[in-house]
């Protein structure tokens, strides 16, 4: 029917429109998705290009930084090389005059015509000069330690004698500044220990020097405790003190803590070297300090004992050499420094050596041919030809006599690789007399003539008080007070005054002076206490 046909047509039309709209919607969604995908791809590509550009810029920046670091490293290495050359040069220049000072101090100290009280002063000059020489070497030690090129030696050290030398040197320094200086050793000390004597001395000198330098009033004390092969050195002062935040700074190279209104001299290397040496020697260093309360430095080191001794005994000093057995030996001294040749000649001539010298390295082979010496002392650094070149020339000429190299250059590595197989000994200026004689005796096989060895000080018998004419009781009490505090200089001055005034016999003054010079304060107290008991 027409109505049914119209209804079907209408339904079909509506359905087609619905399908059309659905297709339009689906097509629109698909087109939108394509548009979004395209936009996302464009954005992603742009972001990728941006990130690539940033990464490239960062790589370029890193390359520039690496180049700058390399340049800075090269500049630092060049500066460090210049510093090393400068320190080596100035070390050489300082050692040469020090050699003359120490050489003549040693000669005068061994001169029997010099009064004992002058010998004491000369000993202080010598030890202070040795300290200055060690200080010069300290300037080179930092670089050696950091480069791992510092060698330690296993020396047999008379620890008691070493402590006496340090106490004598620093007690005088403290007294000059108006400070009290005390030394305590509550435990028995072995006669000999194994350690690097030079480095141990350097550590203690650095600590004691700083303690006296930074203390204006009060006292400085050194305490040595030795137990179970471990030595603990404690340096205590009543000085300025150190704030907690500055304790780590004092161990940095060239760091110096400055307080307002105070100026202290120094290089800022002492404590740096001290800590590095302590650690290399397998020890430990600690600090306790409060501003205004002073400081306490403790160093613990393993010092293996070789022989036990009485707690109050003092190591027997080395016997003095006055000659040698056998025929007279000839020594050729080669050095361009006139003062050095004069010092060495003055050291060796009294012992019976025939000394000839020259300042011209070029003439050495000719002099050897003419004089036929038994030993050559050969300076390393000379104009025209170095000592190593002279040595190589002598060996090529088949001269096999002993040759000992002498140098003011602390850097022993400057000689050629062949040199260690050619020379027989190496000595650093300033020359120490004992080391020089030990080296000469070793390379020449000498049998030395020694002065008669003195008895160990600890074995000296205490004289009976009745055998001495004692001064008045008040004088004995004054001497006892000085002995209790270990005031060596005060005791010597008091004894001199008593002798000058005629209040004490010469025998009494000589006996007490002997104990005083040997740091036997307990013996003095024992003698005076016995005298007081007998008088009462």
UniProtKB/TrEMBL annotation:
Which sequence ranges are marked TM in the entry?
16-37
What Pfam family does this protein match (any one)?
HATPase_c
Q: Which residues carry this modification: 4-aspartylphosphate?
A: 379
Q: What class of enzyme is it?
A: transferase
- Catalytic reaction annotation: ATP + protein L-histidine = ADP + protein N-phospho-L-histidine
Q: Which InterPro entries match?
A: CheY-like_superfamily, HATPase_C_sf, HATPase_dom, His_kinase_dom, HisK_dim/P_dom, HisK_dim/P_sf, Sig_transdc_His_kin-like_C, Sig_transdc_resp-reg_receiver
State one molecular function term (GO). phosphorelay sensor kinase activity
Q: Does the keyword Electron transport apply?
A: no
Keywords assigned by UniProt, alphabetized: Kinase, Membrane, Phosphoprotein, Transferase, Transmembrane, Transmembrane helix, Two-component regulatory system
Residue stretches making up the Response regulatory domain: 330-444
Q: What is its EC number?
A: 2.7.13.3
Q: Which domain of life is it from?
A: Bacteria
Domain Histidine kinase, chain residue ranges per copy = 89-305
Q: What is this protein called?
A: histidine kinase
């Amino acid at each position: 029917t027409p109505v049914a046909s119209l209804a079907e047509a209408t339904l079909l039309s509506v359905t087609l429109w619905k399908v059309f709209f659905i297709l339009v919607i689906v097509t629109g969604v698909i087109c939108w998705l394509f548009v979004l995908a395209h936009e996302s791809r464009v954005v992603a590509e742009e972001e990728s290009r941006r990130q690539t550009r940033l990464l490239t810029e960062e790589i370029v920046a890193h390359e520039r930084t690496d180049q700058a670091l390399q340049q800075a490293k090269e500049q630092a290495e060049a500066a460090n090389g210049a510093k090393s050359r400068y320190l080596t040069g100035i070390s050489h220049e300082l050692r040469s005059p020090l050699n003359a000072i120490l050489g003549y101090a040693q000669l005068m100290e061994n001169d029997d015509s010099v009064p004992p009280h002058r010998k004491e002063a000369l000993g202080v000059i010598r030890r202070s000069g040795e300290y200055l020489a060690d200080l010069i070497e300290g300037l080179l030690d930092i670089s050696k330690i950091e480069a791992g090129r510092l060698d330690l030696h296993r020396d047999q050290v008379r620890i008691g004698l070493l402590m006496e030398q340090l106490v004598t040197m620093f007690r005088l320094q403290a007294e000059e500044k108006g400070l009290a200086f005390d030394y305590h050793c509550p435990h028995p000390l072995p006669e000999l220990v194994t350690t690097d004597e030079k480095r141990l001395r350097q550590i203690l000198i650095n600590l004691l020097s700083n303690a006296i330098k930074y203390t204006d009033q009060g006292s400085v004390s050194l305490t040595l405790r030795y137990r179970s092969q471990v030595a603990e050195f404690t340096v205590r002062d009543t000085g300025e003190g150190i704030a907690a935040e500055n304790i780590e700074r004092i161990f940095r190279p060239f760091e110096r803590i400055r307080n307002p209104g105070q100026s202290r001299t120094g290089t800022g290397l002492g404590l740096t070297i001290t800590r590095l040496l302590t650690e290399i020697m397998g020890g430990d260093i600690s600090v306790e300090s409060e501003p205004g309360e002073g400081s306490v430095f403790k160093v613990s080191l393993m010092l293996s004992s070789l022989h036990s001794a009485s707690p109050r005994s003092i190591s027997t000093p080395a016997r003095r050499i006055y000659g040698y057995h056998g025929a007279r030996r000839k020594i050729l001294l080669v050095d361009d420094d006139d003062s050095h040749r004069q010092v060495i000649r003055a050291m060796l001539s009294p012992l019976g050596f025939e000394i000839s010298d020259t300042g011209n390295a070029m003439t050495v082979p000719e002099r050897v041919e003419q004089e036929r010496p038994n030993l050559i002392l050969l300076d390393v650094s000379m104009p025209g030809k170095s000592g190593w070149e002279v040595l190589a020339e002598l060996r090529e000429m088949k001269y096999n006599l002993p040759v000992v190299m002498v140098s003011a250059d602390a850097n022993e590595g400057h000689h050629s690789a062949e040199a260690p197989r050619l020379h027989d000994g190496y000595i650093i200026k300033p020359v120490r007399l004992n080391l020089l004689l030990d080296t000469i005796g070793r390379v020449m096989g000498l049998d030395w003539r020694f002065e008669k060895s003195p008895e160990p000080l600890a074995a000296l018998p205490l004289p009976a008080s009745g055998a001495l004419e004692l001064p008045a009781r008040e004088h004995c009490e004054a001497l006892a007070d000085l002995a209790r505090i270990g005031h060596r200089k005060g005791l010597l001055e008091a004894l001199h005054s008593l002798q000058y005034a005629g209040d004490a016999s010469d025998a009494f003054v000589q006996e007490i002076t002997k104990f005083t010079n040997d740091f036997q304060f307990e013996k003095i107290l024992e003698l005076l206490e016995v005298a007081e008991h007998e008088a009462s």
